[in-house]
């Protein structure tokens, strides 16, 4: 199975050629026998266990390792905390509580289901709780924040080029955000800003900053024709950036504020598994600029199956994870980083 289309942040943060399913047979397509089941049946593994170690953010050449048939003691520190799988299909466990700082959110007072999934880059959870997280960390919609970033960094240049008489369609290439052969579709600019964040590039092969620049230039030019003042025009643009729709629940934060953000904690098996801001915020480099993206994305699953969390790579980078197929349990220990 090959992944041929993915939204931009997925490809930026987790480049891959395909997906290897390691869930239970209950969710396999056409009841096909998963590769892990074959390995167990053929006796090619000494233990019915596989484990994940993800070594992100390290200067080491090793990005991580999956061990089929056991664990490597160099990959973790201390002992694992094991919890039983509550439902076969995905590797699903029970989540007892979720804390922001040291305060319980109360979302799991009646119990929450959580899926541990190496195929998910982020951590997914109930929208209401993610709103609390985003408020605590000062997160804003990613499209809106990037729009504001373009205006903040290049707004003065756009302004001076326009009032000097440069044609609007030449402004963005003049300041280096668009190629010289870019097209100028006024009626589709806002759509391009949103679509380019989803696809990584606009339909013309340009990146998000080019599309955002063209949109901002259009807004400035329109207001200049109405004899607007610079201060009023940029106040207007700031409001328009706020109103741009955001895709996939993506939100971004001010990179400089990361040290002031609170930790978050998952209570699993009566033990607290904490993530600090450097662990749950992704810093994405885009040319000379960096964008810091929240590692939490919304997921709405109604009762009785929900509320549901998905503990993806962000969680597994912090905690070495053992999938104990033989005993139907999952274990977590502090991941070694080197």
From TrEMBL:
Pfam families: Asp, SapB_1, SapB_2. Residues 1-333 form the Peptidase A1 domain. It comes from the Eukaryota. One of its GO terms (biological process) is lipid metabolic process. Residues 142-182, 206-296 form the Saposin B-type domain. The keyword Glycoprotein applies. GO terms for molecular function: aspartic-type endopeptidase activity. Keywords: Aspartyl protease, Disulfide bond, Glycoprotein, Hydrolase, Protease, Zymogen. The keyword rRNA-binding does not apply. PANTHER family: ASPARTIC PROTEINASE-LIKE, BETA-SITE APP-CLEAVING ENZYME, ISOFORM A-RELATED. Belongs to the peptidase A1 family. This is Peptidase A1 domain-containing protein.
């Amino acid at each position: 199975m090959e992944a041929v289309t993915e939204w931009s942040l997925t490809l930026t943060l987790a480049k891959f050629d395909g997906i290897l399913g390691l869930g239970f047979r209950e969710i396999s397509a056409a009841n096909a026998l998963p590769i892990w089941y074959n390995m167990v049946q053929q006796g090619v593994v000494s233990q019915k266990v596989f484990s994940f170690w993800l070594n992100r953010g390290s200067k080491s050449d090793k990005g991580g390792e999956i061990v089929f048939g056991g664990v490597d003691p160099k990959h973790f520190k201390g002992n694992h905390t094991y919890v039983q799988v509550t439902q076969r299909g995905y590797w699903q466990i029970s989540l007892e509580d979720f804390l922001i700082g040291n305060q319980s959110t109360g979302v799991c007072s009646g119990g929450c289901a959580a899926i541990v999934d190496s195929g998910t880059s982020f951590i997914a959870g109930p929208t209401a709780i993610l709103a609390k997280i985003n408020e605590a960390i000062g997160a804003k919609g990613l499209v809106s924040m990037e729009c504001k970033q373009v205006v903040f960094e290049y707004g003065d240049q756009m302004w001076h080029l326009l009032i000097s008489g440069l044609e609007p369609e030449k402004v963005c290439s003049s300041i280096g955000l668009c190629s010289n052969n870019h097209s100028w579709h006024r009626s589709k600019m806002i759509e391009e800003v949103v679509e380019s964040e989803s696809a990584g590039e606009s339909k013309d092969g340009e990146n998000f900053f080019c599309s955002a620049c063209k949109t901002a230039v259009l807004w400035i030019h329109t207001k200049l024709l109405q004899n607007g003042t610079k201060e009023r025009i940029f106040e207007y643009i700031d409001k328009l950036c706020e109103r741009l729709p955001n895709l996939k629940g993506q939100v971004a934060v001010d990179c400089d504020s990361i040290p002031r953000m609170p930790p978050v904690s998952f209570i699993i098996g009566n033990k607290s598994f904490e993530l600090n801001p450097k662990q749950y915020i992704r810093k994405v480099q885009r040319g000379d600029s960096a964008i810091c993206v929240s590692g939490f994305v919304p997921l709405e699953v109604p009762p009785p199956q929900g509320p549901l969390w998905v503990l993806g790579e962000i969680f597994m980078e912090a905690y070495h994870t053992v999938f104990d197929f033989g005993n139907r349990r999952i274990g977590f220990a502090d991941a070694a980083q080197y």
